[in-house]
């Protein structure tokens, strides 16, 4: 098994801002970058057409490309009927920004997909994702749901209800290991028709947890990235660890990606730790061993 996929890095993992993070990504050996685009300088509302062109040119001048944008709006995902119109509109603007910057993928969390396909929450999420799926497809793009909040089988069942693959999958094996206990290798094969982007991270699960307590659901606290970062750092329920130190079987996981013909990015995400650059450099080296 030999990987030919390009390596990406989430710029925000460095914690030093977008421009410095872009330079650092190049230094550690990445070919591409993923950038959060929901607030601050990367909020679509704050980037004029000229600013978008300038940023795209700057990224290209570094010899990098954007693997995806992150458009995760947190909260209860797309479970709240009242909040959805504004969130859908914002998500469309992030998709527009992605296209302007040279990528066609925006990753996100949508909230935990309920097991009951006949319930109101499932219906609310399905309608929101159907609208986003059609919009993404109309521009040749993908709104990619990150794995972890539910099993791969439940996510596939949800995706199969949509009329196009404009809503697809950003596959994160560590989230599955840490939260649902789902097998990432089985997950890759289950979701093979939908995977358009991946995160590469590792983790350990110490005890079972209701995913709704992590990823937000109606009746539970809304999802908050800061809270999740504290949880994965504390190791009380689960813990994110450097690649190769957790429970993701990367030999089998990477083989599964090869088996399904996945040719997209392997994008390194490091949400915790006080030495992200060191960990990310090691992660690049770890992936390169498979090349």
UniProtKB/TrEMBL annotation:
InterPro entries linked to this entry: IolE/XylAMocC-like (IPR050312), Xyl_isomerase-like_sf (IPR036237), Xyl_isomerase-like_TIM-brl (IPR013022)
Family matches, as Pfam families: AP_endonuc_2
UniProt keyword terms in alphabetical order: Isomerase
Gene Ontology molecular functions: isomerase activity
Chain ranges of the Xylose isomerase-like TIM barrel domain: 22-289
Name of the protein in its database record: Xylose isomerase
